[in-house]
Amino acid sequence: NLIVSWTTAPEFRGLGIATAALTALMNTNPSAALVAKIKVNNYASIKVAEKAGLIFSHKADGLLYYIRETT
Questions:
Q1: Is the pLDDT of residue 52 over 70?
Q2: Which residues contact 6 (CB under 8 A, 6 or more apart)?
Q3: Is pLDDT of 71 > 90?
Q4: What is the pLDDT of residues 6-48, one digit of tens each?
Q5: What is the pTM of this model?
Q6: Cα separation of 57 and 1, whole Å?
Q7: What's the pLDDT score for residue 27?
Q8: CA distances from 50 to 44, 47, 56 (A)
Q9: Which of 2, 43, 42 is nearest to 22 (CA)?
């Protein structure tokens, strides 16, 4: 499993950089299961995860868990 997180400098937010980086990581590791732990109110990161194709798994301890399962 890969546990992923991201941050983008304020002046570069909204340009698709985090989504592109996450997508590239996923394409480079197509057989790896990924997990992203995102704070409940971090709407930008939720959007990144969903745009990259991660799916919501569950909520625990104030975090949303988004995953990409492998087949």
A1: yes
A2: 18, 21, 22, 45, 48
A3: no
A4: 999 999 999 999 999 999 999 998 999 999 999 999 999 999 9
A5: 0.90
A6: 15
A7: 94
A8: 10, 5, 8
A9: 2
pLDDT at position 70: 73
d(CA 39, CA 70): 24
Left (φ > 0), alpha (ψ -120 to 50) or beta: where does 33 sit? beta
Q: Determine contact, residues 26/6, Cβ cutoff 8 Å.
A: no
3-6 CB contacts, 8 Å cutoff, 24+ apart: 3/34, 3/35, 3/36, 3/37, 4/34, 4/35, 4/36, 5/36, 5/37, 6/45, 6/48
Locate 52 and state its tokens. Answer: 């990259």
Cα gap 13→60, rounded to integer Å: 27
